[in-house]
Amino acid sequence: MRLPAIILLVLFIAAGIVLGALNADMVAYDLGFAQLQLPKGAALLVAVVIGWLLGGVTAWLGVSTGRRRLQRKLSRADKKPAVKP
Length: 85
Description:
Blueprint: H1 2-22, E1 26-30, E2 35-39, H2 40-79
């Protein structure tokens, strides 16, 4: 399982390098508080990294919320008296 993941990672890195090399034109960005000039490839890389981070944080928050909910249910179940047959 590790080898296919490494191969996939290398393919994505190679595609990113090619994409960055083909999009070397400078683009101006006005963020309101700052003005930047970046190559298109670098701007795309920044957008992908920001999306990856936001997606990871969202997934982490969803998992941790579900885990807390499950822990509350389990603690309530432990506090209930056992029913004797």
